[in-house]
Amino acid sequence: MSQTNDAFTKAVPVEGDSAVSVRNVSKNYGPVEALKNLSLEFPRGQLTSLLGPSGCGKTTLLKIIAGLLEPTSGEIEIDGKIITSPGPDRAFVFQDFALLPWASVIRNVAFGLELRGVAKSEREAIAEKYIKNVGLSGFEKAYPHELSGGMRQRVGLARALSVDAQVLLLDEPFSAVDEQNRRKFQEDMLELVRQENKTFIFVTHSIEEAVYVSDQIAILLPRPSRVSEIIRPQSFRGTGIENIRRSPEYLDIVDEIWASLRNYVE
Amino acid sequence: MNRSLALKLLSAAIVFGAWEIAGRVPVSYAFPTFLESMHALVVMTFDGSIFTAYAETLKPLVIGVAISAFFGIIIGLWVGLSSRFEWLFSPIFVVMQAAPLAALIPILVMAYGIGLTSKVFVVCIMAMPVIVLNTASAVRNTPASIKDMGKSFMATDRDIILKIIIPAASPVIFSGLRLGISAGFIGAILSELKITPTGVGDIITYSRSIADYPSMYAAIFSIIVLAVLFLNLLERTENYLFEGNNRGYVSD
């Protein structure tokens, strides 16, 4: 992995240690080019944010990696294997939570395992563990409509964690959650990335959120969609969550990203 | 719970009270009071004639409703899942729903005679379109994100239909069933009035011809009670099967 003292390294392919590689991916919707010849590496065990103005194709890219959309051309490689459909190596967290309203919290969390044919007692034991992990103990029998927005997304997160996939795909997971819950989620994300040896791909439109949680930030620009920059914050990771927002590097990166994005906001 | 029961009893008391008053005024010579009608109903219950009548009426009703519910939901699922199938089937049910049924009955009688077959057809024509069309639109309106969720967690097409689309569509499917079954009740009585007078239709026709209006209204009342009881049972089944879909607005 090439590292420089400069926080703003250029997009160079990282050989060997990337969990997910996106190679020359294009996606057209009829005449509209959503993505054009996009390549990106996602280092193993780290959190990479896809950040950009609306319409830059960040959610499209995430859905292609998930196998929910097929690229018009190009390929996605996960652990050396080219993928074309959803697989056990990936789990998805949805912006609108995508919970089953008729199913209790425990059935929702265990739903990924249910689809994989895991026996009921076994999958509920696993689900219970992750419900506890995300702080929802005691709500196993509750239905989604009885939970707040923040709690619903915790259910979505627990469902994704319970299938034990190597790659976690998060599509603006905290955008439908209130500000205080979002801050708590962001702190929990850092803890999660540290604990679990998983690769996180995180789509967001919030610059502060991306800088706060990411090991690597890919800035996507629209028309045609491309990776314009890859930023790796260096100094504030591991200095404690309470110091991140005060770090000069954090503030510089936030300003720098806003300077490059502001022209694209209409 | 008790409050809603009290309100239901109050509403029934108001309706029956108004009926009793209107009968005593009288609104018309041919309009009996509530108590006279109930008396006639008790008499028919004790001499068993109402049970003989229902044994006859329930045949086309149960067969027709069962066919409509079973095939209606299957065709509705199919129409909702495949746009090609929708082009093929949707117009048939739209026409069926819009057609004036009483005008079609002579054609049915010419084709299938005056027996059970024609009556079952009438029940199906009344009940099936709304079941098919509701099911199809419910299936089409399944939120895309929960289908994507299923796919991303590697659901097979069968899993997506059985574990996501059908439960998600169930409130609208059940409301289609409720509408379809009440239409089926109308169809069953209509067929007994228009094709051959049997069962409850016979009680209505015969009582009217001999001016025994209390018996006529008792028969009409009993079929309404049966329909209401059946719809309540259906709603309970729905609440039992899909508990979380009940977000507090479905009453018991």
Question: Can you put this structure into words, describing what you see?
Answer:
The complex is a heterodimer of chains A (266) and B (252). Chain A is an alpha/beta fold and 266 residues long. Chain A has helices at residues 58-66, 105-109, 111-115, 120-133, 149-162, 179-195, 207-213, 241-244, 248-261, and strands spanning 18-29, 32-43, 47-51, 73-78, 81-83, 90-93, 167-171, 199-204, 216-221, 226-231. Chain A is globular and about 50 Å long. In chain A, 42% of the residues are buried. Mean pLDDT of chain A is 85; it is low at 1-15. Chain B has one domain (34-240): Orthogonal Bundle (MetI-like fold). Chain B has helices spanning 2-24, 34-46, 49-81, 83-98, 101-112, 116-140, 144-152, 157-194, 199-209, 213-241. The interface between A and B is medium-sized, with 31 and 22 residues.
Strands of the biggest beta sheet of chain A: in what spatial order? 6-7-8-3-9-10
Q: State the domain count of chain B.
A: 1
What's the CATH topology name of chain B? MetI-like fold
Question: What radius of gyration of chain B results from the CA coordinates?
Answer: 21 Å
Low-confidence regions of chain B: 248-252
Could you give a quick summary of the protein structure above?
Chain A has 266 residues and is of the alpha/beta class.
Layout of helices and strands:
The complex is a heterodimer of chains A (266) and B (252).
Chain A: E1 18-29, E2 32-43, E3 47-51, H1 58-66, E4 73-78, E5 81-83, E6 90-93, H2 105-109, H3 111-115, H4 120-133, H5 149-162, E7 167-171, H6 179-195, E8 199-204, H7 207-213, E9 216-221, E10 226-231, H8 241-244, H9 248-261
Parallel strand pairs in A: 3-8, 3-9, 6-7, 7-8
Antiparallel strand pairs in A: 1-2, 1-4, 4-5, 9-10
Helix pairs in contact in A: 4-5, 7-9
Chain B: H1 2-24, H2 34-46, H3 49-81, H4 83-98, H5 101-112, H6 116-140, H7 144-152, H8 157-194, H9 199-209, H10 213-241
Helix pairs in contact in B: 2-10, 3-4, 3-6, 3-8, 3-9, 4-6, 5-6, 6-8, 7-8, 8-9, 8-10, 9-10
